[in-house]
Amino acid sequence: MSHNGKTPVDFWFDPSCPWAWMTSRWMLEVEKVRDVEVRWHVMSLAVLNEDKLDELPEEYRELLEKAWGPVRVVVAAQQEHGDEVVGKLYTALGTRFHNEGQGPVREAVVAALKEVGLPTSLADFADKGTYDAQLRASHKEGIEKVGQDVGTPVIAVPGADGEQIAFFGPVVTPAPKGEEAAKLWDGTLMVASIPGFYEIKRTRTQGPVFD
Fold first, then answer.
1. Cis peptide upstream of residue 153 (ω within 30 degrees of 0)
2. CA 77 to CA 44: how far, in whole Å?
3. 185 — phi, psi (to 5°)?
4. From the CB of residue 123, how many other CB atoms can be counted at a distance below 10 Å?
5. DSSP structure class, residue 99
6. Residue 153: closest CA among 161, 164, 142
7. Rounded Cα–Cα distance for residues 41 and 90 (Å)
8. What would the pLDDT profile of 105-152 be if each residue is shown by its tens digit?
């Protein structure tokens, strides 16, 4: 349990990923209907894929190159202003990147920093490796809980024996609200807690629905 008696839910995200964004908005709904508290951490699709760039389409390689900037800015904000700014900054960034369709451009990053009261100079870290060691450590912590063959997001919660249960996803659109959010949370925990359970999947028939 966390200090306030709520169950901690660790959530690893890359701010550039639209599917992680959908899951994160669902997770905020879960906070309203279940006694949980989200703790936000960064992971990086660029780091995840850096050893297999030659196998990826050029278009996706370009997206991964652009993905370095926002995640570096979030890590810099965390390192210089504390863990409590991560979730707020993620919401400000994601709203601009995804809901408003601006993408991970510098103007969106600067506006997001300004919205949450952080120095806009943090945007300069997008092109610097100052905190890449911390970025990679956070990424490693999340991805090692689930394995290398998944993406973002990764979620980890305490299991019945005190050990963390971790999983990739769920991938869902639009983000469920209210009782639907609760049902998905309860069901996800139920299947994820079964030893030896690995995967449920079906073909996506639509892209992320931002609302």
1. yes
2. 16
3. -65, -50
4. 23
5. I
6. 142
7. 10
8. 999 999 999 999 999 999 999 999 999 999 999 999 999 999 988 999
How far apart, in whole angstroms, are the C-alpha atoms of residue 127 and residue 172?
32
CB neighbours of residue 120 within 10 Å: 12
Contact, 138 vs 41, CB < 8 A?
yes
Greatest CA separation for the chain: 47
What letters, b where the CB count within 10 A reaches 16 and e where it falls short, cover 132-147? beebeebbeebbebbe
Residue 21 has, within 13 A of its CA and on its CB side, a CA count of 24
Identify the residue whose tokens are 């956070």.
138
**In 67-179, which ranges are E strands?**
154-158, 164-168
131, 133, 139, 144: CA torsion to nearest 10: -170
- Say if residues 1 and 7 touch (Cβ distance below 8 Å): yes
Q: What is the pLDDT of residues 139-186, one digit of tens each?
A: 999 999 999 889 999 999 998 887 899 999 999 999 999 999 999 999
Minimal CA–CA distance to 17: which of 56, 73, 60?
Answer: 60
Nearby residues of 26 by Cβ (< 8 Å), 6 or more positions away: 170, 172, 175, 176, 181, 184
CA distances (Å), 156 to each of 45, 88, 148, in order? 18, 20, 15
